[in-house]
């Protein structure tokens, strides 16, 4: 009887350990597109991409590693053809924005300032916005997205785009 009781306790402890280990997985690399896939040629914020399940926490940590540490550059560069597609997509995106209706928007006015990698067919970049006057104010603030901190020191925001 005592042996049976001990076996039951051991089995219960094993089951408890199993469920504890399973619950520790926070889904860092889990992507679950809840609102479909992103539209090609559209630009999204990191928050939108994360909230829609297009980027995982692991993706955000990787992006933050390069964004928060300017000396730690992403090891790959974007192909010139992709850069041109991004610039044209950004120009088209702004041409459809009523705020920029009076501007003569051209793709060659845009620059990809930084590239933070491609994740799940999404390109994560920092791009200039040539048609907006940037004030002479020092930017220095932190933003948390999905539990990952981003240290902003620029007037430009990280953008996510699918080409």
Quick recap:
The protein is an alpha+beta fold and 163 residues long.
Task: Walk me through what this model shows.
The chain is built from four helices and six strands. 18% of the residues are buried. Residues 16-26 have low confidence and may be disordered. The protein is elongated. By secondary structure, the chain is of the alpha+beta class. A four-stranded antiparallel beta sheet has the order 1-6-3-2. Strands 4-5 form a two-stranded antiparallel sheet. It is 34% helix and 18% strand. It starts with a helix and ends with a strand.
| Quaternary status | single chain
* Average pLDDT rating: 85
Distance between the termini: 67 Å
Which structural class best describes the helix and strand composition? alpha+beta
Relative helix content: 25-40%
The profile of the biggest β sheet is: 4 strands, antiparallel
Whole-angstrom Rg: 22 Å
Percent strand equals 15-25%
Q: Which series of helices and strands comes N to C?
A: HEHHHEEEEE
Lateral arrangement of strands in the main beta sheet: 1-6-3-2
The number of distinct helices, counting runs of at least 4 residues, comes to 4
Low-confidence stretches: 16-26
Report the strand count. 6
Which word captures the global form? elongated
Q: What topology emerges from the helices and strands here?
A:
Layout: H1 2-23, E1 43-44, H2 46-51, H3 57-68, H4 80-95, E2 112-119, E3 122-127, E4 141-145, E5 148-152, E6 158-161
Antiparallel strand pairs: 1-6, 2-3, 3-6, 4-5
């Amino acid at each position: 009887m005592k042996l049976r009781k001990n076996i039951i306790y051991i089995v219960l402890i094993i089951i408890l350990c199993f469920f504890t280990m399973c619950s520790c997985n926070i889904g860092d690399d889990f992507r679950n597109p809840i609102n479909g896939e992103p539209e090609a040629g559209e630009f999204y914020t990191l928050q939108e991409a994360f909230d829609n399940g297009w980027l995982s926490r692991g993706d955000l940590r990787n992006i933050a590693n390069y964004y928060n540490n300017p000396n730690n550059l992403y090891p790959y560069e974007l192909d010139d053809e992709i850069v041109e597609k991004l610039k044209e997509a950004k120009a088209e995106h702004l041409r459809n924005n009523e705020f920029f209706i009076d501007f003569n928007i051209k793709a060659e006015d845009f620059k990809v300032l930084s590239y933070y990698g491609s994740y799940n067919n999404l390109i994560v970049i920092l791009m200039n916005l040539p048609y907006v006057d940037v004030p002479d104010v020092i930017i220095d603030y932190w933003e948390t997205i999905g539990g990952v901190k981003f240290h902003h020191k620029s007037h430009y925001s990280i953008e996510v785009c699918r080409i």
